[in-house]
Design a protein that fits this description.
alpha/beta, five-stranded parallel beta sheet
Length: about 220
């Protein structure tokens, strides 16, 4: 279906953070695909540009043109997948989900009970803007700093899981309406997930292949 030398046909991993996005990148990298990982995104300030709505600066960057698989942010952010779907009609999308409570537990562990990454953007994605403004006031927060400013604890579980589950319903609904053949959805807990992912892209996956990057301690 895809040649790993073809940089014009893009594969976007649009799974929420902490749902195996890095492992998806490692999977495709093991087959020779050129994978744009989080360090590539950060070097290009792609998430900041997404936040500012400057999509064409992302798409016109050399690293975007040169890579054919994209994992981590900004690809999972909010409904950016809809922009990608229409902007790149030959693109395909990978969507992993996992148990909601296990996902939230992983979120808490990631930054030791603090919000992940840039707090202003995190607050926008997870609908904590009012709390952010109460604590830090208004101002220019358009930067790329990883600051982990807010707490993330058990009291937030229900709020985060509602957002997580809502988006995980919205994604297949969108593709069902528009083009189901461009999306593969898999469960992170599925022992056959890599075989299924490989089959979708016509890749011969070795038996018992296991990929698990960024495993929480």
């Amino acid at each position: 279906m895809f040649g790993f030398g073809d940089s014009k046909r893009k594969i976007f991993c649009i799974s929420f953070q902490r749902t195996g996005t890095t492992s998806v990148g490692e999977f495709f990298g093991s087959f020779g695909f050129r994978v744009a990982t989080w360090p590539v995104s950060r070097a290009n300030k792609w998430t900041l540009k997404w936040f500012e709505g400057d999509y064409e600066s992302i798409f016109n960057s050399k690293d975007f043109r040169d890579h054919n698989v994209f994992e981590d942010d900004p690809w999972w952010c909010l409904d950016f997948y809809k922009v990608l779907f229409h902007r790149f009609p030959a693109s395909t999308f990978v969507h992993f989900t996992r148990n909601s409570d296990a996902w939230f537990d992983s979120m808490i562990r990631h930054s030791n009970g603090r919000t992940l990454g840039n707090t202003y953007r995190h607050a926008r994605i997870y609908r904590r803007e009012s709390e952010f403004y109460r604590k830090f006031g208004s101002g220019n927060y358009s930067d790329d700093e990883i600051d982990n400013l807010l707490e993330l604890n058990e009291s937030h579980r229900r709020h985060y899981i509602e957002i997580y589950e809502s988006r995980n319903r919205d994604i297949p609904d969108f593709f069902d309406r528009n083009d189901p053949g461009r999306l593969i959805s898999l469960r992170l807990e599925d022992s056959q997930k890599w075989k299924k992912l490989g089959g979708f892209f016509d890749l011969k996956v070795p038996e018992n292949l296991e990929v698990h990057a960024n495993r929480s301690k």
